[in-house]
Structures are given as C-alpha cells and as structure tokens.
Design brief:
single chain, about 350 residues, alpha/beta, Uridine Diphospho-n-acetylenolpyruvylglucosamine Reductase, domain 3, six-stranded mixed β-sheet, four-stranded antiparallel β-sheet, 10 strands, globular, tRNA(Ile)-lysidine synthase activity
C-alpha cells in the first residue's frame, strides 16, 4: 500500500524541485549527478508549522533517494515569549527526520516597512547567511497556493503593478537560491500530510492575529470573496499570479532591449525616445535607471516612477523629483538625468 495521497503529493512536488536543483548543480559544476563530491546540500526553512514541517518530511524522504544532502534551518524572530524554546523544539524535530546539518538562527526584527516586512527582511537575511555558511545550493520554502492567493490580494489592495500581482516565484533569490515546491498545492494538503505522518506542528498565533494584514486577508478577505463568488477564488488568484508573472517577464525583457535605444552617445536618457515607448516599457526603463543610480528597489514605489514619468509625458518646466536613496531625477535640455544628489 502506498503513502497517503497528501503525502504522495508533497513528495512528488519536492522530488521535481530536487531534480531541477541537481540538473542546475550539474551544469554549474560540470559533474555527473551520481558523483558524491558533487552532491548539493539543500536546506529547508522550517518554522514548525504544518506547511514547513510537511516540506521538511518530504525533503528528508526524497533527498537520499536522489543523492542530495538535506539539512534545515529555523529562524527565531524573538517576537513571542518562549520563541527560543520553540526554535529548539523545531531543531530536534528536524534532526529526528534525519536532516543534517540543522541550525537555529536568532534575529533582531527592526521596524522599517512595518512589522511583517521587517520580520520578512530579517528572516531572509538569516536564511541567506545560513545558506552561505553551509554552502547550500538551495533553500526550500513552504509557501502554498493559499499564500500565493493572499500575496496577489495584498498587491491588488495596494494598487501595485503587474510585478506585484505576479506573487511569489517558484524560483527566486541570488542564483535561484530559493525554491517553492508547494505553490501548486493548497494549505490543507500540507496539513493533511502532517496528520497522516503523525508529525507534530505548531500554529503560530500571529497567523490568526488581526493586527497583521495578511492574517485579515486569510481569515476575513478570502472567505468573504469565496462566499460572494463561490469556490475557486484561491485557484483563480494563483493562476492570475502566473499569468501576471509571464507578462511582467516579457515586459522586463522588452525594457531591457529598449533601454539601449533611448540613450545618447554619452549614455544619457533621451526624453523624445522615451516618450515614443509604450508606457509600461518606459516606466520599466525609468525604474531600472533609478535603481542603477542608487535608489533602493524595495523603497521605489509606483508613485515615484509616475512622478518621473511626468517629466517625459507632462513636461511643464517642473523641478527635480526626489527619489529614495537621495537620488534626484530632473530634465535638462531634452535629456533625463537621474543621479544621486
């Protein structure tokens, strides 16, 4: 008798991702996958919740069968009493699954961008450091289709562009470090897999705290949409994310090719050439130029680019536009100058 259908589903998702990692690793290192010296290390980021515990168990099962080394890392955000004890319990559970190395990393969460963004930034910084320290080829994250739907709704609520609506990528980070095997699986499948394997899980109280925007989306927003529109909202939003990502990738590629044609011999942006571009392409060129000049991507919002765009499309002699990172954009003699200071 085979495994429970939910267990089989999560294992298949992880097996596919590990196969991709092995292929990427083999191309990078020029070795055959079966060679021991070329066996990559894959870490799972685990909070102890159902999604990440299901992911950890699937990694522990599939990795040895594919010749992949498997480890784990848990991040202690220090935002709740006893969080250090919780992290220690997760370390024990991961080791019981057979993962090695397993590490716990304590972080200090700042305030910039709000509590959710600050915790996310601290978490990814810790995961990056752990991957570098252990020489990991990839870090697996347990985001599900439900998480993807929530991300799309958050983007819609903020009036963000198509890149934000594209949600989370299956592969992201430097050199494709982060992999999300569960984006096509729902949250209930992961929880059922844990129950079928008698895996203890921890339900983070923050996930039910209405003080957090994502929690309100999860417990109020999505249920209200499903009540009004019927079942299938989560699947539709996740599908929207993939379609939006395909469109955003195409527009980014177009902007990359167009950028060379809107610069003069000295590399300055020509306003007339920019004006001739479709708005979606032009704004991408402007965003790329602002980031290149030193404006932090995470702080550069649509409203900033719209103001710069008006220097091209609505020129009335207006003054310079101040952007994050002390970057200034101004129009000078038919050229757009974007630079620090």
């Amino acid at each position: 008798m085979g495994p429970h259908p939910a267990v089989a589903a999560i294992r298949l998702a992880v097996r596919r991702v590990l196969t991709d990692i092995l292929d990427d690793h083999g191309r990078t290192h020029g070795r055959l996958p079966h060679e021991r010296s070329s066996s990559p290390l894959v870490l799972v980021a685990c909070s102890g919740g159902a999604d990440s515990m299901a992911l950890a168990s699937a990694l522990a099962f599939e990795a040895p069968r594919l010749g992949v080394r498997a480890g784990g890392v848990t991040v202690d955000h220090g935002l709740q009493a006893g969080s250090d004890l919780r992290a220690a319990e997760v370390v024990v559970r991961l080791r019981e699954l057979g993962l090695d190395p397993v590490t716990s990393v304590a972080v200090t969460v700042g305030r910039e961008g709000g509590p959710e963004a600050a915790a996310r930034d601290a978490r990814y910084a810790a995961l990056d450091a752990a991957a570098e320290r252990h020489g990991a080829a990839a870090v697996l994250l347990g985001h599900t289709r439900d998480d993807q739907a929530e991300t799309v709704l958050l983007g819609l609520a903020r009036g963000s562009g198509i890149r934000s609506l594209s949600g989370m990528a299956a592969v992201s980070g430097a050199d494709g470090r982060y992999r999300r095997p569960f984006l096509q699986l729902d949250r209930q499948t992961a929880r059922t897999a844990c129950m079928a394997q008698s895996l203890p899980v921890w339900d983070d109280p923050h996930n039910a705290d209405p003080a957090y925007t994502r929690s309100r989306i999860r417990h109020e927003g999505l249920p209200a949409l499903e009540k009004a529109l019927g079942k299938g909202v989560v699947e539709a939003l996740a599908r929207t994310a993939q379609l939006s990502r395909d469109d955003a990738d195409a527009l980014d590629a177009w902007a990359g090719r167009a950028e060379a044609g809107v610069r003069d011999a000295d590399g300055r942006l020509e306003c007339a050439a920019l004006h001739a571009l479709p708005p979606a392409v032009r704004r991408r060129v402007l965003r790329r130029a602002a980031i290149e000049a030193g404006s932090p991507a995470g702080s550069l919002f649509a409203r900033h680019i719209e103001e710069v765009d008006r220097l091209i499309t609505g020129w009335r002699g207006q003054g310079a536009i101040n952007l994050p990172g002390r970057v200034v954009a101004r129009r000078q003699g038919g050229r757009l100058v974007i630079r620090q200071g």
